[in-house]
Amino acid sequence: MKKLIKTLKNIWSIEELRNKILFTLLLLFIYRVGTHVVLPGIDPTKLEQLGQSASGGILGLIDTFAGGAFSQASIFALGIMPYISASIFMQLMTVLVPQFQKMQKEGESGRKKINQWTRYLTVAVTMVQGSAYVAYLRQMTAQSGGIIEGYASYFWISTVVLLTAGTLFVMWLGEKITDKGLGNGTSLIIMVGILARLPQSFMQELANKSVRTGQILVFIIEIAILIAIIMGCIMLVQGVRKIPVNYAKQIVGNRQFGGARQFLPIKVNSAGVMPIIFAQAVLFLPTLFNLTGTATGHGIAAMFTDHSNVWYMVIYSVVVIGFTYLYTALIFNPKQIADNLKQNNGFIPGVKPGQPTVDYIGAVMDKITLPGAILLALIGILPGIAQLLGVTHGFSTFFGGTSLLIMVGVILDTLQQIETQLLMRQYDGLMKSGRIQGRQTVTQASY
Fold this sequence. Notes:
Layout: H1 2-13, H2 15-34, H3 48-53, H4 57-65, H5 81-96, H6 98-104, H7 108-140, H8 152-180, H9 185-195, H10 198-210, H11 215-238, E1 240-247, E2 250-252, E3 255-257, E4 261-267, H12 274-284, H13 295-305, H14 310-331, H15 334-343, E5 346-347, H16 355-388, H17 393-396, H18 401-424
Antiparallel strand pairs: 1-4, 1-5, 2-3
Transmembrane segments: 21-42, 75-97, 117-136, 151-173, 185-203, 215-237, 271-289, 309-332, 368-389, 395-415
Pfam families: SecY
Subcellular location: Cell membrane; Membrane
């Protein structure tokens, strides 16, 4: 405890770090206030049906990323999701399109161009999603009369404009946090939205267990299991396979360079949270059969909406494993790594430079991707397993899935930055031994 108090004093005594923390908290507070500002023309007292319909599937994912703003018809209803979608698309373009690859290799100027294209694409995506959200609001509030009748003729244009402005403002907040605050702003905004639901979900679970005799012990066991799952998730995020690399000695003048033995860290889970997001988006598509009104459509929709369904979990696991391999193949380039080693006079002991090095790195990546994909799929279905064991729907989402992976990754990344600031000023780090390792950032949105 004394160590913790001393560390907190050291953090507060560094003026630059203190200002970054306060600036970050201020912008996050502004974001949370905005999530409670309801769109003009909506009666906030008649949004109960909207919240119930956004409790699962891709709508639940959007609502999670938006911090509950989606189900509250807020001006930040779409949150940062359009920016994430645009960032993912641009990242895939830098992998698949040679022109974007060339742009990315131009350095700072190339990154600025890509960021500018990402912003333009964000506006387009937000306008499309905003139009769809208006149709969704009208459908959900048709019976309850949630849209004020006198405002109905202006509702579409005003809502699309406000949602676009709201998303751009949230994107601006994220960029400001990244530039002048602490951590990745976009990731922090998503994490705060997820954590905002934790107190309510925790109290609902506690109340549910308190009404029955002997269930408090079950609740304590649930908390212990949750802590164990978080520890396992940390191991998955930080787990690496170290490939030894030697660098040839070079003598320049009277000085010797190289000759040191280092390691090439290969992440067990290089794809991050992206396979889970893609899998949830794909498995949401069968629910669109609801629009057909056929019995088969309702049956398919019921199976893929119920996350505790055994068939859903089996199919979901297979899709997550498949997307893990696909996304890892897109973002991980063994040939580029082998070329960089060759240019810097580095080599893997016992492996010839060139194509043999490419094959060796690729084989290692394939071997460690399988256990990483299986563990990722297991984390993805843990909320469904928790529901089967009697955990309430809201609290079960913190036992795994997108929410847990994002929270663990963002917290580790933020703690790593705080520790770096402490060590730069010759203070003790956050841990007695070892260093906190941040996650590998896949995109600016980090998912």
